[in-house]
Design brief:
Layout: E1 2-3, E2 9-10, H1 31-54, H2 65-89, H3 98-117, H4 129-133, H5 149-173, H6 178-197, E3 209-210, E4 214-215, E5 218-219, H7 223-249, H8 251-268, H9 273-299, E6 301-302, H10 309-322, H11 328-347, H12 352-366, H13 370-382
Antiparallel strand pairs: 1-2, 3-6, 4-5
Helix pairs in contact: 1-7, 2-7, 2-9, 2-10, 2-11, 3-5, 3-9, 5-9, 7-8, 7-9, 8-9, 10-11, 10-13, 11-13
């Protein structure tokens, strides 16, 4: 308050405060990041088809069908590693059951591919060969929508997502975390593997599904279809990378990282970690289901061994080797580990498992941030 010369009291007028400039939202990718993204898209969508379909066999630049199948399989694994990074690298939840969601998506696609065989099976029946062999008279109820491609595409996402949501709802509400959560997820996938091994469940028992012939009426074995599946897998990987990038850079992703670093502090700030953890857990499982659906027609088989706990542990190793909480790192780790596996299992098959164990130990002790972290450190050192 102020008093004028006449003795009148008037309110004081304060100087206007400077406007607070909030930081603008950073772009999804930097210019260098978009350049690398476009180069990767061109490699997948243009260069690989040209080298495989146009360049003749015997030429030094020809990309063989074996290489196409191998790279397509590794890109499916890269989607798995990316999904693991969202739940482990950014949220701090180590899952040893992601192989289950991968296999569920694969089985949904496998059921559709088995129906596409029609009467071209060994028994010339409308039922899949394993059902005829087991003397089944009609299709089980859970095969009802397996002849519809649209329903299959939806179920590839919904089945793993529903299983993950139900499991995560009870696990996260019970505040199960740390090593206890990892053990429970490992037990879950092991129990599912034993269930799918049983013939009466209608999933082919220990043999699973194989001998696929067509997808959407087009033969899978043709070079054009194999290349289409390869390109589709690569585009899906790139799309999921952008999705993951958008998630972790948004407020949602910042809360996930806060949960990873201090869940009790997040609760003190008024956030409920359960909803955030359940959401990213379900999204991660859906990504695994899509990877499994793309994997099956390229590899040509799906069986309960895909649910093996060892497979889920390998997914964690890919993420750790490449570098957690980096998105690019798990993709790099999937390519490095599986590329080495493909070579070592041929050249030194008896030493492959020793190499995998030694690699994981070395990364844990000397490269806590993985290959990508080492590359960033070298870059800073050389700058």
């Amino acid at each position: 308050m102020m008093k004028t010369d006449e003795g009148v009291v008037v309110p004081a007028v304060s100087a206007p405060r400077p406007a607070v400039q909030l930081p603008g939202r950073s772009p999804l990718l930097t210019r260098a990041g978009w350049s690398a993204f476009v180069i990767a898209a061109l490699l997948v969508c243009v260069l690989a088809p040209l080298l495989n379909l146009v360049v003749p066999e015997g030429h030094a630049l020809h990309l063989s069908d074996y290489a196409v199948a191998l790279l397509g399989k590794i890109m499916c694994y890269a989607i798995l590693a990316l999904a693991m990074d969202l739940i482990w690298g950014y949220t701090g939840i180590l899952s040893l059951g992601h192989g289950l969601f991968f296999a569920l998506g694969g089985y949904v696609m496998g059921m559709y591919l088995m129906r596409q065989i029609g009467r071209e099976g060994n028994y010339k029946s409308d039922l899949p060969d394993f059902m005829v062999f087991l003397d089944w008279k009609e299709m089980p109820w859970h095969w009802a929508l397996s002849d519809s491609f649209i329903a299959t595409v939806l179920l590839v996402v919904l089945v793993p997502g529903l299983v993950a949501f139900v499991f995560g709802y009870f696990a996260f509400r019970s505040r199960i975390k740390g090593v206890y959560f990892s053990i429970i997820t490992q037990a879950m996938t092991f129990a599912a593997m034993l269930l799918f091994f049983r013939n009466e469940t209608g999933f082919g028992g220990n043999n699973g599904f194989t001998d696929f012939k067509r997808i959407l009426g087009i033969a899978i074995a043709t070079p054009g279809m194999r290349m289409f599946l390869f390109v589709l897998t690569g585009c899906t990987l790139l799309g999921f990378f952008l999705l993951a990038r958008a998630l972790v850079r948004a407020k949602f992703g910042r809360v996930l990282q806060a949960i990873r670093d201090g869940e009790s502090r997040v609760m003190f700030c008024g956030y409920s970690p359960v909803g955030y953890k359940l959401a990213i857990w379900t999204i991660s499982a859906m990504m695994c289901g899509v990877a499994g659906a793309l994997y099956v027609p390229q590899v040509g088989i799906i069986n309960p061994s895909e649910m093996s706990p060892a497979n889920s542990i390998e997914i964690a190793i890919w993420a750790a080797v490449g570098g957690r909480a980096s998105l690019v790192g798990p993709i790099v780790g999937a390519f490095v580990v599986n590329g080495a596996k493909s070579w070592l299992t041929v050249a030194y098959p008896e030493f492959w498992l020793y190499f995998l164990g030694a690699l994981f130990i070395a990364v844990t002790l000397f490269l806590p941030h993985g290959i990508v972290g080492l590359a960033r450190r070298w870059k800073r050192g050389g700058a």
